[in-house]
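Take a specimen:
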Amino acid sequence: VKYGFAPRPGLGVRLGPPHFSERLGVQGAVILEVTPNTAAAAAELQPMYVDQRGRVRAGDVIIALDGEAVSSPEDLSRLLDSRSVGDMVHLGVTRDGALRTVKLALQSIN
């Protein structure tokens, strides 16, 4: 604990609360915001957006971390807490109904 705190591993995203997933009709952790210059930004993860008709749409929804199911933001937080900054992880992500896998290194989110 070099700087007075233990570094927490993260992706560089802000997640929506569980009711966002329910409202959008998806299961997983909905990405609200991708922080610039982060692993998530480099992996081109996409946040929620408003379409041309003014409807709110889910961008990327995280449904797995290293093969373990993610059904809520709390699931993702729990899984990340068991990892370390610098670990390489594989995210299962859905975008517009299509599944893709994204590999990225966890970074400190303190």
